[in-house]
Every structure is written in C-alpha cells, then in structure tokens.
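Hi again,

Forgot to attach this to my earlier email, sorry! This is the prediction with KE4 bound. I've pasted everything inline since the attachment limit keeps bouncing my files.
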Amino acid sequence: MVSKSSQLFSRAQQSIPGGVNSPVRAFRSVGGTPVFMSSASGAYMYDADGNSYIDYINSWGPMILGHAYPAVVDAIKERAGMSTSFGAPTELEIEMAELIRQMVPGVDMIRMVSSGTEACMSALRLARGYTGRNKFIKFEGCYHGHADAFLVKAGSGLATFNIQTVPGVTAGAANDTLTAPYNDLEAVREIVAANKGELAAIIIEPVAGNMGCIIPAPGFLEGLRSICDEEGIVLIFDEVMTGFRLAPGGAQERLGVRADLVTYGKVIGGGLPVGAFGGRADIMQCIAPLGNVYQAGTLSGNPIAMIAGYTTLKTLNDNRDIYTTIDATTAQLHDGLSDVLNASGRKHVINHLGSMISVHFSDKPVTNFADAASADNASFATFFHHMLDRGIYLPPSAFETWFISSAVNGDDVAKTIAAVKDSLAAMA
Ligand code: KE4
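Structure tokens for the complex follow:
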C-alpha cells in the first residue's frame, strides 16, 4: 500500500520545487521518500501515516523544550488574538532584548530579524561597514545560511548535495570570501598575513553542526580571538545552532571565548521565525537608524514570534537545570551508542558536546569538513533508514548534527540504543 507520505510527496512536487520548502528535508542524500509529519508532542513526532518517531532533529535545533511545549503554545494562543503583527515597536521586543542581554554577557545591543540567514548576512554587512574592509574568512563545512557570500565551501545542504559552486552566486559576491579548514589556525594566520588590513571579519560556528558535530580543538577559538584582537578583525560567532543550547550564554559562556558579534536563530524563536544579531555597542551603533549600515525587516520582532521565543528563553533562564538534563541525556545516548557501535565492530567516531552529537562511520577522528566528507557516508544513509524504520528520526544527512531536547527521557534513549543495535545487526 502506498504510504500517505509518498502520496503527499508526489503531490507536493507538483507545486513546490523538490516537494520541500528547504532542501535538507528532501532525503536526497539518504534516498527514499521524506516523511510528512502531521503533529508532534514532547520528544515524539507523528507522520501522516500515524507512525511515531523519537525526534533527534528538533526542527534542526529550535525545539529544545520538545514539541508543543505547553507554556509556549499557551503564550502564542493568548497573543494571537491581539493581532499577529503591528509593524511598530512593542514592549515585548524590549523585554526580549533585555532577557537576551541578561543571558548573554557581551551582547550590549541586539537586533531581531526573521531567520539565521538574515542574522548572519546582516552581521557580515555590519562588520564590513564598521571596519571599512571587504574580505572575510569562513570555514569549510560551516553553514551561515544562504546569503550569497556564504555559499562558498559551505556545509549543511551544500555538503549533503556536494554543491561546490552555486549558480546565481556571482564572482563578485564570492570574491571576498576566503576559506580555511576548521581547526586550522595556521591556515588562518596565512590568510591574514596575505590580506593584511583587508579582513573585516572571521565568522565561525563555535561548535560546528553543519558537517556533523565538529568540536573546536583546544586553543582554536582562543587563537581566532587573539588574531582578531591583533588585526582589528571582527570575530563573529554564528550561534544559530549553539545559542541558548550549549548554555544560557551559548558557546561564548560554555567555551569561555568572547565574540565581537554573535548571531542567533532556531532556539531564540521557540520554533517560530526569529533570528538576531548583537554584540559590542560600538559596532552595533553602526546599524540604521543610528548608523548607515542598512538592515530592515517587515516582520522583525513580530509579536507572535517574540512571545514564542521569549517564553522559550525565559523557561530556559528560569530553569537552568534543563541544561544539566539535556547534557546528561546526550551523554547517556553517547555511552549507549559507543557500546553498541564498539560491539558491532563497525569503525566509527562519535562527536559530542552538550546536547549536540553526531555519529560518523569513519576510522579516523572527524575534526574538519574533509574528515567528515571522507567518512563512509553511504553506510550512514543505510543506517538512517534502518533507524527511521524503527521509529528513530535522525537528520537525513551525515553532514548534520543531532539535537536532544529536554523531552527525551531515559526510556527514549534506551529505545534508541536498541534500534541502533538492531540496525547495525541488519547492516552486518
Ligand atoms: P536559517 O536561515 O535556516 O534560519 O539559518 C541559517 C543557519 C545559519 N547558521 C547556522 C549555524 C545554521 O545551522 C543555519 C541553518 N541550519 C540548517 C540545518 N543545518 C537549517 C535547516 C535547513 O536548511 O532547512
């Protein structure tokens, strides 16, 4: 019998490119038909055929409290009746900004936008406007959204689909984008020396999540901080994934390295479209209407998105044991994965920090994009489907990190590990 998801996928492709509104959802690299979801609650999602899944995608990060978190849903319901948008300033936006400043030391000012892409695009423009310089460094395998300048050796869907150059991104847009391997400080030093006085910014995912989960080597982020201090380069932490997840203050707090600008998305909106960029007051003062670095958005600070994000962040800020919980659950998952993977004899690497984790079928450490790309990602695709068939919803790509929400409990982890064991046996 043809599944409802298959029927929906066929129908979707008549009207939506690839049948999806974001490429990574299309299962292109793992094959098969994307699962069409109909509802979700807590750690579980339910597809159009009524199958249930333990969710380790979390909508690619936002659902840190689990799906349909009551306080968030109630706040949205209450606010919706007061109009869904004003296009005028509201007190709620001030409360959101003040809460973020309380949670994230070093964010003197913050501007709301509607996606992580918009946040990163705006932060780069701001760094360029502040320094009067054009060039910037990004890292191979990092993904900062789909603004033209970032679509150079990027991660996430571009890595998944092995898109090396993106049609429509002009040489002019990409010319000032310089790239280095993640964790390679020497390569950064060489680029800086060869472009003395021309670099506006270094942008990095402080813990990378778009080539699987890649952890910064000891001293790597600190080294970038020193280089930026010496050279007057703006250090931008793209915390769209790590923000409010690794700690209330994100990676800056967790890893003890201060960025000049930081970008947010995902968790900050509690599942609604919210992004933000913020940081040092002297830099943020350059943003219109204070300065001439223009950035704007009809729905920036939208009241429904704000109340969803504010309720999420306030829940996290007022219940900081949530961080202990999601870290402990992820550590339990790591231990279980390690046990069954070791028992299977299959070469693997597990990268993990906080509530971000990824499994790579690799016989060597995975510390940058080249390592992630050279892993046995065909086996990952097979593993993905075995897990999906057993009710475990992993990211459909080896170039993505798994996310753990506070709704995932010990029983869910046990079910997941049992599914891993069965999947590996079926793959033997
Ligand atoms: P959005 O524009 O998708 O809200 O955010 C872009 C972005 C920026 N920076 C980082 C570190 C990100 O991970 C992202 C988006 N992440 C992908 C998942 N790898 C979003 C999923 C998708 O593209 O559908």
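The two ends are 29 Å apart (CA to CA). The first strand starts at residue 37 and ends at 41.

That should be everything now.

G.
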